[in-house]
Amino acid sequence: MSLIRYYSPELSTWSPFDRLSSLRDEMNRLFEASSSGSTRDAGLLTAWAPLLDVFQDRDNVFVKVELPGLKKEEIDISVQEGILSVAGERKEEAETKEGDTFRSERFFGRFHRSVVLPTAVNTEKVKASYKDGILTITLPKAEEAKPKQIEVSVS
Amino acid sequence: METLTKNDDKQTTTDGARKVAYVTPQATIRETKDGYLLQAEMPGVNKAGLEVTVDNNELTILGRRSDPEIQAEAVYRESRPRDFRRVFELDPAIDTARIEARMEQGVLTLTLPKAERVKPKKINVD
Question: Within an 8 Å CB–CB cutoff, is residue B74 touching chain A?
Answer without folding.
Answer: yes
